[in-house]
Amino acid sequence: MSDDDLAKVAVPTPHDMAEAMKAHGSATGKAYIVIGGSGLVGQYIVRTLLARGETLVRIIDVTEPKVSADSDVGAVDSLPRAEFVRADVTDYQSIANAMSRPFGNTGRTAEVVIHTVATIRNFERLAYVKHLSYQVNVHGTRNIIKVSQELGTVAALVYTSGTAVLVRPAKYLWLGLFGTRPGALVGNDTPEDIPRLTNHYISTKIEGEKLVRAVNGVKGIRTGILRPGMVIMGPESMFAALVLKNPDVNPTWGSGFTNGILNAWDLGRAHAQLADALFNRPEDVAGQSFAITGQTTAHPYHEVRHMFQVSIIYIIEAPVKCDE
């Protein structure tokens, strides 16, 4: 993208997203629980639900969502409008208490559960540390499923996975032997029986997916899985915060590495729409997984770095220094 193109880019506002959601239907009035709602993905799911007019929204997490000091607490998508309950998915009684609590004085309990919690330890492969990923990504998922079934009011469970579960492992010791390694282009038509990455994040997310698929249609709960693209970007992104808040040189590498970028607002909307579809057209989506991404153009890292440099100049008129 040229500097002129970047200067014309508009950041979607909560009003923009509310209007986009209205194109797919108005508020449902259902009771929503977003487990992991304090994280980047979870926050945008919650904000999307609030923006379209949902009033029964609960965040369950180990920590409260961070709300910036200059945020508009009166905005329709303001996170404090959602109820917050602290709980640990690895502790059955903790998550059971948080999920089964009625919404205010309505007496109603959850009808939609959106499960975004994950431990992302994608750098670990040795057996003695697998439990650190397994406890959250598998045991925690099993606890959430069990509580959802016991509640009796949950009719839809949306599970956040990732397209990384479909990425083939690199053959590092073979570099140069067979020419340039082809890119990993994955989607809904990627076979499920391909060789996978072997780190504990991937293996435990695959186990979590299997649990969610296995309970589709059991005790009245329909399930669906979203596999977001590899890079999820938003104001709360750790990568964005690192670059934008660091006044010194930001070392980067892999200029030619190309990756899709998914806007956190789009991901929030995807979760809301999948939850809706599990009620409105379950025959099309229940028990299935869907790979999602943002715009169709994938950008190499050197372009992403340039986007940061130009965008921050237009936003706060301050340069961002990057070095490779």
UniProtKB/TrEMBL annotation:
Q: Cross-referenced InterPro entries, in alphabetical order?
A: 3Beta_OHSteriod_DH/Estase, NAD(P)-bd_dom_sf, NAD(P)_dehydrat-like
Give the signal peptide, or none.
none
- Please state every residue range assigned to the domain named 3-beta hydroxysteroid dehydrogenase/isomerase: 33-245
Biological process per Gene Ontology, one example term: ergosterol biosynthetic process
Q: What is this protein called?
A: 3-beta hydroxysteroid dehydrogenase/isomerase domain-containing protein
Q: Which ranges of the sequence are coiled-coil?
A: none
Taxonomy of origin reads: Eukaryota, Fungi, Dikarya, Basidiomycota, Agaricomycotina
GO CC entries:
endoplasmic reticulum
Report the source organism: Rhizoctonia solani
GO MF annotation: an example? 3-beta-hydroxysteroid dehydrogenase [NAD(P)+]/C4-decarboxylase activity
